[in-house]
Amino acid sequence: MSEELLSYEPASGEELWRAPVSNVDQEVPIARAAWPEWAAKPLTFRSETLRRFADRVKAEGEKLADLIARETGKPLWEARTEVESVANKVDISVTAYAERTPNRRIEGAMGLRNAVRHKPHGALAVLGPYNFPAHLPNGHIVPALLAGNSVIFKPSEKTPAVGAMLVDLFHSAGVPKEVLRLVVGGPDTGKALAGHPDIDGLLFTGSARTGLALNRQFANRPDKILALEMGGNNPIVVWDTADIRTAAILVVQSAFLSAGQRCTNARRLIVKEALADGLIEQVRDLANRLIVDHPHAEPAPYMGPVIDNDAADGLTESFLILMSNGGQVIRHMTRPVPGRPFLTPGIIDVTAMPERPDIELFGPLLQVIRVESFEAAIAEANNTSFGLSAALIGGSPKLYDQFWANARAGVINWNRPTNGASSAAPFGGIGLSGNYRPSAFYAADYCAYPVASSESDSMRASIGVGLRETDDGKPKLIRKGFL
Ligand SMILES: NC(=O)C1=CN([C@@H]2O[C@H](COP(=O)(O)OP(=O)(O)OC[C@H]3O[C@@H](n4cnc5c(N)ncnc54)[C@H](O)[C@@H]3O)[C@@H](O)[C@H]2O)C=CC1
Ligand SMILES: O=C(O)CCC(=O)N[C@@H](CCC(=O)O)C(=O)O
């Protein structure tokens, strides 16, 4: 009997889905054999096939949203926005492919020309996270297929049902089954896929811990493309503003959207001392009112559960560790439903903590740091090895210029939350947040490589200097010219 992977609904604990763990050695050769034929199709064929996929996603949108909500625990309204992003990805990727990887002809002297065109890598592996089980892997899969690659996709072991439905939707739209393969399994299957000799690259979204392991695994493989999108320890800085209420809403949205399970969620609120008490009161007041409930509940919740009990245990434990190391509790993180991973938002002032851990606490947990000067705020914002998103709330155009110039992150916002990044812009981070291969609009860059060609319709050759002519027996030097 082959080993099975089971998935459970976080909100209820009920089993949702099960399937045998895949054999990577069977799946990779199928995708590898399939890519040349797919790549040889006209680009319009591939883009039209993917547009049919977008239509299939829209047609099955409610079913997909329901499954996402069940398998991740995120509220149904939020799962619907994920479905929308999945469908929108196709047109955005078609535009991105044309803009980021256009064919170019550079005319030279005497009828010579240089051409720049792009080729797919071949068979690419995609490893997905659980927090956006459709949208984020889709953000690799669509541009990869569009560029002519085949894809072997392993969804997170926590959200395999959504991964399987996504792959079915591609197939039902006409993407050949051999060109997109689903691989079911956990970290060991991920490792086997990443280490398979026949993949031409790996597109990863997930934690820094896994990303670092993959980076080591690929250390002596410069021949394989590796795109890493990892976590963050993101700062939100609140500075001079009279509109504390709106600032508080932006903080809550940044910290607690998706129950804090977005790589772009704000983990650290850095606030001017003079504003701190007023702002914290408003943030706590809003956090008290956030509905934490089942994804399908009415009235609709702001937050569902986190992904599982292990994650919830880890977060409540982290809250206790911050408390016992000098953090001052502003709002306790609690477990309102015994035995299930629902969490209420936790807020803790860590200003007095001597050594703050620089780790991504992937849940509804916000740390507050009070500072006296804007320079100290920027230093605090940069006091992390990650660098995904950062936001300034309030201030002035001049302060924003200073913040933008000095904050180290791939997403830097002003008077907007740290999350909710646009798919029409590049998306990625620096430091432990990524490896300078931003995704979203720039995913086109890592899905194809440029080929430069010098071309002429007729043969052209020249010998520069140093050719000895022997026909008349007298040495002669031809300095330059076409023969
Ligand atoms: N920067 C970005 O775009 C995003 C980053 N994330 C990050 O993802 C994390 C949450 O997702 P998780 O599913 O917990 O991430 P994870 O790193 O645990 O898993 C991601 C994928 O890698 C696989 N995997 C795990 N260990 C592996 C190994 N040693 N070798 C190969 N594959 C392995 C898993 O099975 C899964 O498919 C957070 O840290 C979050 O910040 C999530 C979304 C977006
Ligand atoms: O990938 C895109 O198309 C845009 C980037 C995006 O969706 N970012 C999300 C966070 C993704 C995550 O946490 O997993 C956002 O900024 O909210």
From TrEMBL:
<dbReference type="InterPro" id="IPR016163">
    <property type="entry name" value="Ald_DH_C"/>
</dbReference>
<dbReference type="InterPro" id="IPR015590">
    <property type="entry name" value="Aldehyde_DH_dom"/>
</dbReference>
<protein>
    <submittedName>
        <fullName>N-succinylglutamate 5-semialdehyde dehydrogenase</fullName>
    </submittedName>
</protein>
<feature type="domain" description="Aldehyde dehydrogenase">
    <location>
        <begin position="5"/>
        <end position="443"/>
    </location>
</feature>
<dbReference type="InterPro" id="IPR016160">
    <property type="entry name" value="Ald_DH_CS_CYS"/>
</dbReference>
<dbReference type="InterPro" id="IPR017649">
    <property type="entry name" value="SuccinylGlu_semiald_DH_AstD"/>
</dbReference>
<keyword id="KW-0520">NAD</keyword>
<keyword id="KW-0056">Arginine metabolism</keyword>
<dbReference type="InterPro" id="IPR029510">
    <property type="entry name" value="Ald_DH_CS_GLU"/>
</dbReference>
<comment type="similarity">
    <text>Belongs to the aldehyde dehydrogenase family.</text>
</comment>
<keyword id="KW-0560">Oxidoreductase</keyword>
<dbReference type="GO" id="GO:0006527">
    <property type="term" value="P:L-arginine catabolic process"/>
</dbReference>
<dbReference type="GO" id="GO:0043824">
    <property type="term" value="F:succinylglutamate-semialdehyde dehydrogenase activity"/>
</dbReference>
<dbReference type="InterPro" id="IPR016162">
    <property type="entry name" value="Ald_DH_N"/>
</dbReference>
<dbReference type="InterPro" id="IPR016161">
    <property type="entry name" value="Ald_DH/histidinol_DH"/>
</dbReference>
<dbReference type="Pfam" id="PF00171">
    <property type="entry name" value="Aldedh"/>
</dbReference>
<feature type="active site">
    <location>
        <position position="229"/>
    </location>
</feature>
